[in-house]
Amino acid sequence: MPSPSETVCAFLARWEKPGDLYAAFDDYFTPETVWENVGWATTVGADEANALNRGYEEALGMTAIRVENLAVAEVGNKVLTERIDHIIGKDGEAMISPHVMGIFEVEDGRITAWRDYFDTRTYAPPE
Questions:
Q1: pLDDT < 70: residue spans in the chain
Q2: What's the predicted TM-score (pTM) here?
Q3: Of 36, 79, 94, 107, which residue is 20 to 30 A from 115 by alpha carbon distance?
């Protein structure tokens, strides 16, 4: 079985191919997985997470996300990530690239909890 950090890195790598984002959530989440974008939204299970992702896709014109892992640390079943999530638009270029800190909890190769911390103003329309 892969280590918790291998599980998280494999999950994040799946986001880059258009259409695989939703499959990654289906494959790596349990029905009880809590995903919290701190200060913004919380979901439970892959269906709610993918509904939130579809909302991002529609609002932003997002087609994929290329994750640039800057640092990954594992302690027990917890994985900390420092990353840049490059939100890819229909032209194949990054539209926005927020810096994100996340913590994942992994059991038996599946993500059971995940919290991301980032500046939500990254997604605000320009003033």
A1: 122-127
A2: 0.91
A3: 94
